[in-house]
Amino acid sequence: MIEQLPFSLPLFWAGVLAFSILVYVLLDGFDLGIGILFGLNRNEAHRQQMMGSIAPVWDGNETWLIIVGTVLFGAFPMVYAIFLSAFYLPVALLLVALILRGVAFEFRYKDHRHRWLWDLGFIAGSVVAAFVQGAAIGAMVAGIAVEDGRFAGGPFDWVAPFPILCGIGLVLGYSLLGAGWLVLKTTGRLRDWAYRLLPRLMWGVIAFVAAALLLTLIDNFRVVDRWLAQPWLLGFPLLASAAAWGLFRGAEARRDWQPWLMASVLFVTAFAMLAGSFWPWILPYHLTFDEAAAPEASLSFLFYGVGLVVLPVILVYTGVVYWIFRGKVSPETSYH
Amino acid sequence: MDFDPITLSRLQFAFTVSFHIIFPAFTIGLAAWLATLEGLSLATGRPVFRRLFDFWLKVFAVAFGLGVVSGLVMAFQFGTNWSELSTQAGPIQGPLLAYESFTAFLLEATFFGVLLFGRERVPRWAYFVSTLMVALGTTFSAFWIMANNTWMQVPVGYELVDGRFAPHDWAEILLDPVLWVRFPHMLLGAYLTTAFCVAATGAWYLLRNRHAAEARVMLRMGLGIAAVLTPVQIGYGHSNGEYTAEHQPGKFTTIEGRWQTEQPARLVLIAWPDSANERNAFEIALPFLGSLVAQGNLSSEEPGIVTVPTDERPPFLIPFYAFRIMVGLGLMMLVISWSGLWLMLQGRLHPPAASAKATTFGSGDPRQTEASVSNLPRWFLWSTFLAWPSGFVAVLTGWLTAEVGRQPWVIHGLMRTANAVTPSLSSGAALTSLLAYLLVYTLIFSAGTLYLHRLLREGPGDERPDPSSTETGNERTPRRELAPGRPLAVGGPDPGLGSQHPAPERSSDDLSPGTYGGTA
């Protein structure tokens, strides 16, 4: 039965993994971004609108992180084990951040006296979650110590200039997605505010990309060789530049849908560039996706249930629910 | 106790999983309860079901949120702290957990958004379907978790390939008879937890003479469900004992508290172990009953702890006592729910006709109004109210029995817990994360409990215990934010409509538009 498939199961699951990461980044990206921007806006009415714009969907968005984790566990258990032990403290930090951020959606409306505390948790949680994700990706790119299929480094290996830069970069990037989402979902002064933020955040992201490129060239990561060997990869940065231009234009012309869409395109191209630069490594320079894959019995069990049935159903109902909550969040019908 | 990475990781896992299970134990049942209420509301059109739904949805929102965020930690902890287990058993455990996140988590989370914010945006049938989807999601979640845990308790359908556990036969793993007694046991545990919370809330309101209409529904349904499910649950509990006796002699003999093999075996009720001498330093035991419980006769030979090698024995005290607490609570649930059923069958849920008539004229005497709300004895209402935590404690002690009882194994008979821990993990890192979780969980648990208590104290939005006795109802509840000048007002967003239709059950509050943002 397996032989008849036009692709190998490890390839299929690497694809699902990549897809899940991308969906996670795009969806939780804008709502983490709103959590970050929340800290820059002290107006309570605006804050309620900001939260209201993500309240019905944030939980589903964040669930894609668990999807990523369990796909790794199910299809690439070695990577799951190595990655999570390598990032022990950052992962703990990420989880604590997501906990504080998650409870804020309910708690800030239940307790006016301590609202400042839950708001602080919401902001700090969002910033830390974004930063840690960026830093982890940066540390992966820079390479982690693996011996004998196990992590062989220390708990602070990820504290280095490149990962930290990537952490800051992702905070900026998610803010950009968040500002795009605000423009799309809100009206009035809040939307004006988000429109003003967009070009500044875009410049911030551009500065980050420049700095990251510079560091990469200085350290001469192996990835540069890949770029030189496969110059078609450079198409992605070109596409990204077009998206950045589209974002500036959209913000200027005040086309509400454009900045969010362009920011998302930006993330898609960045992700494609990242994946293309390392393919077929799943844990750069230690394990390829083929080597890391679980036995075929695990992958086919997942394939016939999740791959063929459940995943399409998920895409349908996620789409339906986003459609149900389409349109602007009006200031009157804010959360709670 | 050494604070090495293994001990710290075990503490952390025990703490985070115990914290987490409290919320699913509640929300699995609550999701089913909400779907039932919405279905009843749809079928009968009675506003009381809608009021109950809106009220319990607020409770669900807080509990579900806490369950989600604490569950997040569980999904990653296998990799951070137990990477050897993940590497070696990942091919089996990973797909099971992946199935959970694909079939359960996304379903729950996505339709939960519709429950909270979609009331005004989707047709009623679609809203009802959303409640069903959330309930289905929580049930799926329980299934996959039990499948995963059962495989660790009684590993089947695997083969060893290069030192790793590869799945050999998924049907054997998913159709394992052990799974099919443990999964219902967990599901029923969750339903009973919720049933007792619901019934206790009803009892609480009747004791305080508030929300009588809602309280009666909660008592009737909560106790009714518990009366039916508790005996079934006790049956499944017994089946759990049977698989344990067959597959996990270390756990079974420890639960029984029996050191030496006996024929016929006694039933040890209470004991204090003397592990060095392989006997109990103190015990109260009943003759013959050990054989009766295990084999259904009075003469069978039953093994003792000594039949298990010393380095494969679990600790004594936790499984032994946790098991007894769980069983005791199960029996208590049976007594309360059947007493309740008995009282309700006698018609004592409703006030006697005479006193109901008396309150029509708005008596100010509290004792008399109390009589008007129901005719249930106060001792019964108090016991039901005080039984609210019984489900939570039973679920927790049940898990303690199962998990501590299987030590020193993480995969029973195949992999020791001590060999499962992440090799690169340092004590400092493990201690840091443990303290961080302790701190954050304490914070959110205290706040969450406080907010839940507030919600429950406030009660359903509509303060209208009985069409004929509302004035008394309002006088007795000054906390409510209702304007005293509008004694018959429908709570919250739409007082105008409600006051035009004061008495009948089928008032127009189902049409009130202000419920967007459900958990207001």
From TrEMBL, chain B:
InterPro entries: Cyt-d_ubiquinol_oxidase_su_1
Annotated family: Belongs to the cytochrome ubiquinol oxidase subunit 1 family.
Listed GO CC annotations: cytochrome complex; plasma membrane
Compositional bias annotation for Basic and acidic residues: 473-483
Keywords assigned: Cell membrane, Electron transport, Heme, Iron, Membrane, Metal-binding, Transmembrane, Transmembrane helix, Transport
Chain segments annotated as transmembrane: 12-34, 55-76, 96-118, 125-147, 186-207, 321-345, 379-400, 434-452
Subcellular location, record wording: Cell inner membrane; Cell membrane
Organism of this sequence: Halochromatium glycolicum
Name of the protein this chain belongs to: Cytochrome ubiquinol oxidase subunit I
The keyword ATP-binding appears for this protein: no
Residue ranges of the region described as Disordered: 458-520
Keyword Electron transport included in the entry's annotation: yes
GO biological process: aerobic electron transport chain
One Pfam family per UniProt: Cyt_bd_oxida_I
Topology class, membrane: Multi-pass membrane protein
A molecular function GO annotation: oxidoreductase activity, acting on diphenols and related substances as donors, oxygen as acceptor
